[in-house]
Amino acid sequence: MGEMIDVTKENVLIRKGNCSLTILPRLGGKIASILVNDRELLQGPLAPYGPRSRTMSFDAGDASGWDECLPSVADCTVETEAGPASIPDHGDLWRVAWQNRDQGIANREQVPGDAGASSATFRGECFSLPLVLERTVTLAELDGGAGRGWQVRLDYTVTNTGSYPVPWSWSAHPLFRAEAGDCIVLPGSIETLRVEGSGGGRLGSGGERVSWPVATLANGSRSDLSVAQPPESGIGDKLFAGPLNEGENWCALERPQAGVRIKVGFDTAATPYLGLWICYGGWPDRPGPKQICVALEPATAPVDSLAKTGPWSRVLAAGETFSWPMVVEIESNASVN
Known about the structure:
Strand content: 35-45%
Shape: globular
Order of helices and strands: EEEEEEEEEEEEEEEEEEEEEEEEEE
CATH class: Mainly Beta
Distance between the termini: 44 Å
Largest sheet: 8 strands, antiparallel
CATH architecture: Distorted Sandwich
Number of strands: 26
Number of domains: 1
Strand order of the largest sheet: 8-10-11-12-26-22-21-15
CATH topology: Beta-galactosidase, Chain A, domain 5
């Protein structure tokens, strides 16, 4: 992967009370850390931070934290008026340096006043298609304050800076740490999920549907998918829910041993699908450290590849923009049922 990158001089720190976010603009605008009461909520790096090429696979890097997947999650080739466009694994944006909207890349710490929120805005430019993503991250205390919890709001805008229409899809990619016994909670109306991929064929083939929360595995046994398993289980599954309605605009990860409940909210009119990556030691396939995480991923499509088209497919005209929100609420020492 080449030489290590010292990102400490380029960190952007957003802090409110006992919660802080660290953003690495040079490494794709990655949210590298969400610390609550000195406890890390995001998957740590599987390898040292290093330079990213335009073609390397996601697992060849640190495969950690929170990245943004645009214009595709899976590598693929799509046709445009300018000819075929090759999109690499997990998209373009985790590979490129993002720019501070006002100042260029800069070292800074955003510390709000007692009653204020703290925010930072960066933009990343794709290279496979003429798309630019701008993301503002705002951190504030939940109503009630006193360390009860925090809200991380993310406001996104994608712009087609080219002279021809281009297809696009987006997925958030927040890898939340997990440990055995943690619980994934979805709205009660969600009873089945679509399998995008399943390590070892555990849940069957891509495109099949499985029951939620208790699924019948390919070997005929049953498993509660909502309960996190130990790392030795070797599980690595990608699932999708949706299209979702207005009442299904949330999901949560309850972590009683960590003393937090992480709730993700999104606008189903703008991002009507939810990706769910559950990995308990099952990925990467190569030797070395594995992910132990749950990713709750609002998305514009129910598939990882932009080349797979359907009613969900989107095209931005030249000069057109599209905006959407996402909210993460972190409740500290929340009681879980």
